[in-house]
Amino acid sequence: MDQTLIVTAVIACVSVLYATAGQAGGTAFLAVMAFASFPAVEMRATALFLNILAAGYATWQARGRLGLDRKLLLQVSVPSLLAAFVGGLVVLGGHVYFVLTGVLLSIAAAVMIFKRASDDTQVRAVESLPAGLVGAGAGLMSGLTGVGGGVFLTPMLVGLGWTSPRRAAALTPPFILCNSVLGFAGVFIAGQRLAPSSALYASGALTGAVVGTFIGHRWMSERATRYVLALIMLAASLRLLTR
Fold first, then answer.
1. 218: burial class by Cβ within 10 Å (0-12, 13-18, 19+)?
2. Contact of 149 with 185, CB cutoff 8 Å
3. Structural domains counted in the chain
4. Range of the domain at 204
5. Residue 139 to residue 196: CA distance in whole angstroms
6. What tens digit of pLDDT does each residue of 188-229 get?
């Protein structure tokens, strides 16, 4: 079978898994491209492009849903936009890029595994300054790594006790969408481009997002969401660190 079709099928599968937990799949998209030996200059832009499609669908699908804390979304998203754009302008060396991203995802996975009390966390008021700092940090990492920022934002929100895993998952798609757009703009200006056959890869990512979002909305509990997120982050971190 042609490698392009295999890569598309794998992207669709990992997109399903990520979408069940409210994620777009940037870390897995990068891992798939790494296994397929994509040139480094194509990976970040392509991952952000796929993020935009997957998160765009999840955001549209979640419109009007109960559980979306719009105030908190604005508090973390607005400061993240400029940070994501700036991060996209910065091109890290391959070794630094993989180590930085892998370590951050390992920490995020640990937070999700051990923060058991967060499953019953209730919505509460969050001050604008700390929320803005968290959003800016996740946005910067989004632009630097190409993963959309959701895997950084979600564990921080849960770890700080600001919201539950499912409510954090509801915030994640619009956050990823905004940051991926700005990050992609920065990456494009920095001179990195999409991989060939990106339109086909996009069809796989979007199909996976449709299926995964359907599953996540109907059958994922707070605990299941937290563990799926943790396993995703841990697997992605191990893959990046072993590169």
1. exposed
2. no
3. 1
4. 3-242
5. 27
6. 898 888 999 999 999 999 999 898 888 876 776 656 666 776
